[in-house]
Amino acid sequence: MPEPIIVFMGTPEYAVASLNALEQAGYPVAAVFTQPDKPKGRGGKVQAPPAKQWALERGIPVYQPRRIRDDGVEALRALQPDLCVTAAFGQILSQEVLDIPHMGTVNVHASLLPQYRGSAPVNWALIHGETVTGVTTMMTDKGIDTGDILLQKELAILPQETAGELTGRLALLGGELLVETIGKLLDGTCPRTPQDESNMSYYPMLTKQMGLMDWSKSAHALVNLVRGLNPWPCAYTPSPHGTLKVLSARAEEASGAPGMVLEADDKRGLLVACGEGALRIQSLQAPGGRAMAAHDYLRGHPMDMGSRMTEEG
RNA sequence: CGCGGGGUAGAGCAGUUCGGUAGCUCGUCGGGCUCAUAACCCGGAGGUCGAGGGUUCAAGUCCCUCCCCCGCAA
């Protein structure tokens, strides 16, 4: 068939990777739907989402309906798309929206479906200590990440990798897989497999509250929490000096009462006992401050060995 | 005008309330000690206190303006 009219729906950097892949593969994007600009910066400055910036730089029309299934339907219909592509759009599509493109809507999801459905698959995979993940292209249907699987590609997770880093790599992989998927859809050779519902898992959106570190857990579990929530919302813990964001840490062999400070000097750094093993905090961030290495922080905020990371004061 | 925290030596901080010699920990340089050290002792260098203006006999500190960093809001 001739060149399809593709309408893209996506919002963050993760979506831009797919836009770049489409562009490089020679698939023109007819329009971009993205979330409305939101006040982001300090002082109430609004900022355009990355996908919008990408489109504006190329003179591609941008649509920012508050809810596409309410006030974006007519605009989408008018574009007469053959195919819609979504990647971290941040809005749920109604059946009415899904019915518009006759080839359907392809979603680029950052997990090996049916595992890790939901809006934060990368974070949850890391929190659970997975060593392999991947990306899936799928036909979007009315459920959340429940549609038929088209193509999948695995990716090994690096030992110290954070959610931000892994998301970046998955986004690139997702772009490649998207191009491959569209090619096969166009020539009719794309496989299409229903998801195995008995093997599915779904995890919710991230909240700041999830980042509270429970020192009775194992050091490995806490390392995974720290990695999985970086760069947002980040793991945090109370401390003798107030709440600290823990940005990176690794597990060590040591023991003590959970939450007790085992080492705290500016040479060796900060070691805290966990329910199993101990957590070596490598970098952290205090309220109002910038991120810094634990030993830098300790120079100006000396901490006694034996104090607890459970209460302030 | 959305709210709040911050900028002081290479690093991390105190000092600002109530103006009166620029401090602490670490690093660094030199010397010493020890079988030994991320150990210890002695000595030194290193600061336009974010920028500009104002008040004052005197400003890191008080007043005004501006710049930059960080948190809240996913």
What would a concise description of this structure say?
With 313 residues, the chain is an alpha/beta fold. The chain contains nine helices and 15 strands. Helix 1 links the parallel strand 1 and strand 2.
Our estimate of the beta-strand percent is: 15-25%
Question: What is the N-to-C order of secondary-structure elements (H for helix, E for strand)?
Answer: EHEEEHEHHEHEHEEHHEEEEEEH
Biggest β-sheet: count, sense, barrel? 7 strands, mixed
Mean of residue pLDDT values: 94
**Helicity level:** 25-40%
Order of strands across the widest beta sheet?
Answer: 5-2-1-6-7-8-9
Approximate shape: elongated
Distance between the termini: 69 Å
The total of helices stands at: 9
Low-confidence stretches: none
What is the CA-based Rg, rounded? Answer: 22 Å
By secondary-structure content and strand pairing, the structural class works out as alpha/beta
Count of β-strands? 15
Could you describe the 3D structure shown?
With 313 residues, the chain is α/β, with parallel strands linked by helices. 27% of the residues lie in helices and 24% in strands. The protein contains nine helices and 15 strands. The strands form three sheets. A seven-stranded mixed β-sheet has the order 5-2-1-6-7-8-9, sandwiched between helices. Strands 10, 11, 12, 13, 14 and 15 form a six-stranded antiparallel β-sheet that branches. Strands 3-4 form a two-stranded antiparallel ribbon. It is elongated and about 70 Å long. The protein binds one RNA strand of 74 nucleotides through residues 38-40, 42-44, 90, 205-206, 208, 232-233, 245, 265-268, 285-293, 295-302.
